[in-house]
Design goal:
Blueprint lengths: L7 H14 L2 H19 L10 H10 L10
Length: about 70
């Protein structure tokens, strides 16, 4: 068995991180917060549905730029 040595403070920090990351309620709240911030920044709510993302991107990115047919 191989062993490593860590300073006690580093070990305590790692234990705290494991406790925080294993808290499912906290992770759920973070996921909700991320969804809300994404919706606020980009104006759309995806959650687990990403089927319309391509259509939204195409419509949004090309609305200000003229197509090749318009330039003729």
């Amino acid at each position: 068995m191989e062993t490593i040595q860590l300073p006690l403070s580093e070990y305590e920090n790692l234990k705290n991180l494991v406790n925080i990351l294993s808290d499912k309620k906290l992770l759920t709240k973070f996921n909700i917060l991320i969804d809300l911030l994404y919706e606020d920044k980009y104006g759309l709510f995806l959650n687990d549905y990403t089927e319309d993302l391509t259509q939204y991107s195409i419509n949004n990115n090309w609305k200000d730029e003229k197509s090749a047919w318009d330039k003729i």
